[in-house]
C-alpha cells in the first residue's frame, strides 16, 4: 500500500472490503487463514502477487513439547 500510496479507504473501495477489515489485515502478524477471494481482491487491487503480501515462517515448537 505504501509503495502505491493507497490508503485503507481507497483499498477498501478497490477490493469491496470494509476499511476496518483492511486495517486488521495490516496490523495482524499471524493469520490462521485468509480467504482465497480476499487474497485475490488484494492482489488485483495492489497489482501484485501473493508472495508480495505473505511471508512463510515456520511454526516455533511449543515449549511444552520436548
Characterization of the model:
This protein is mainly alpha-helical. The chain is built from four helices and no strands. Helix 1 crosses helix 2. The chain is elongated.
What value does the Rg take, in angstroms? 14 Å
The helix fraction, in percent, is 40-55%
Oligomeric state of this protein: single chain
Strand content: under 5%
Give the count of helical stretches.
4
> Given the helix and strand composition, which structural class is it?
mainly alpha
Measured distance between first and last alpha carbons: 41 Å
Helix and strand run: HHHH
The overall average pLDDT, rounded, is: 87
Concise overview:
This protein has 4 helices and no strands. The chain is mainly alpha-helical and 66 residues long. Pfam families: HTH_26 (PF13443).
Question: What labels describe this entry?
Answer:
mainly alpha; 66 residues; single chain; 4 helices
Would you spell out the secondary-structure blueprint of this structure?
Layout (H helix, E strand, L loop, with lengths): L7 H8 L3 H9 L8 H11 L3 H4 L13
Helix pairs in contact: 1-2
Amino acid at each position: 500500500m505504501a509503495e502505491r500510496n493507497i490508503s485503507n479507504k481507497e483499498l477498501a473501495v478497490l477490493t469491496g472490503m470494509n476499511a476496518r477489515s483492511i486495517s486488521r489485515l495490516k496490523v495482524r502478524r499471524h493469520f490462521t487463514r485468509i480467504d482465497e477471494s480476499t487474497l485475490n481482491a488484494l492482489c488485483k487491487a495492489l497489482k501484485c502477487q501473493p508472495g508480495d503480501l505473505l511471508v512463510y515462517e515456520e511454526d516455533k515448537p511449543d515449549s511444552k513439547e520436548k
